[in-house]
Amino acid sequence: MAAPGAPVAGAIMAGGRASRMGGRDKAFAAVGGEPIAVRTVRLFRGLFPQVLVATDRAERFRGLDVETVADRFPGGGPLAGLHAALLASRHPHVFVAACDMPRLDAGVIRFLLRRIGAADAIVPCWGGDVEPLHAVYARACAPEMEACLRAGRLAVRDFLLRVRVDYVSEEELGRVRGAADSLTNVNTPEELAAVGGRFEESPG
Fold first, then answer.
1. Tell me: the pLDDT tens digits for 28-81?
2. What is the rounded distance in angstroms from the CA atom of residue 24 to the CA atom of residue 27?
3. Element spanning 52, H or E
4. Are 96 and 160 in contact (CB under 8 A)?
5. 0.90 exceeded by the pTM?
6. Which end of the chain is more exposed for a tag (fewer CB within 10 A), N or C?
7. CA of 15: how far to CAs of 64, 69, 168, in Å?
8. Do residues 9 and 85 make contact, with C-beta atoms less than 8 angstroms apart?
């Protein structure tokens, strides 16, 4: 069992095409007057000794003075971003979050980190589904992820079938204050508007 406070890296997954946002970069949508990426980087710096952004648009994050990593398997989707983050991690575990989660909660993240043990991944169940992009992965998962990527099995769910997963039940997670907020993501303009968000930059 990992000791409390054992070093964990934090990684932001920012490699999607944002087709449902009309191609606009979800990471830089503003919620509460602040871009999601700016808030997430600040939150992660308070939680993790290493903060990574998995992205093919590193120039977008240059002003945040954060370490960026590119996919080793371009076109491999979120699994390729996870793989790149694990390879770049200096720590045995990585907490990953999608770039479109404007209300990530430090207490909820710490709750998941306290479950680090023998499992390869700690994945929340929420809304009748699993949330693999608000989860913890062991760096040792990288070879299995690479095998899936090389075989063209790109779904994170397919990868999870091949490793030991500690699935956190929705019932248990629901007792953690802030869980619903932390797991909220914004994939569409309507979802962004529902959390009071907007794009403050010009398209492109």
1. 787 777 888 999 999 999 999 999 999 988 998 988 989 999 999 999 999 999
2. 9
3. strand 50-54
4. no
5. no
6. C
7. 17, 10, 26
8. yes
| C-alpha closest to that of 93 among 119, 73, 128 | 119
Tokens of 1: 């069992």
For tokens 């991690």, what's the residue?
89
Which residue shows structure tokens 């913890």?
136
Q: Write out the two tokens for 11.
A: 């990684």
CB 79 within 8 A of CB 120: no
Q: What residues contact residue 1 under an 8 Å CB cut-off, 6+ apart?
A: 116, 117, 118
Indicate the burial class of 143 (C-beta count within 10 angstroms; 0-12, 13-18, 19 or more).
exposed
Q: How long is the chain?
A: 204
Q: Tokens for 15?
A: 């490699």
**CA end-to-end span of the chain:** 46
Give me the residues paired with residue 166 across strands.
122
Q: Is 8-198 assigned to CATH 3.90.550.10?
A: yes
